[in-house]
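Quick question about two entries, pasted in order.
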Amino acid sequence: MAEEKTKRGIYRVVYDSENKRWLIKRDGAQRIIDSKMTKEEAIERVKALSQNQDIGFVVHKKDGKFQKKR
């Protein structure tokens, strides 16, 4: 099942320092799915998206480094 999730891509929460917002993206997609003012809001939104579609997600720190995977 983990392989199936990887094939469909994953969601990512990344910080946009230019606009000072947390972005939710999906691997392979060009458009941003959503943006939030706080990291906590972005994580809550990505959790809901990933549960509805049974897709994993990765959260990055402000500096772009990996923080956690689910």
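Here is the second entry:
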Amino acid sequence: MAKCPICDAEAAPRSVNPSFPFCTTRCKTIDLGKWMNEEYRIPVPDSELDEDDDAGASDGSSDAASKTPKDMRH
């Protein structure tokens, strides 16, 4: 049986547990909250970061402006 990634309890299969791979809806909600609070991060290779910096400079904008998020909505 699978283990819940939040509390390490056993998680029933998807056929009987709609919250799979979590053990309960509570653990599923905790995980969503961690994503929403930006506690989880997806790593980006350095080469991708360099390409983004170069692309911002080609449009004539300043370095500070190119590093600010385009969409500030939350």
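Reply: The longest strand covers residues 2-3. The mean pLDDT is 80. Hope that helps.
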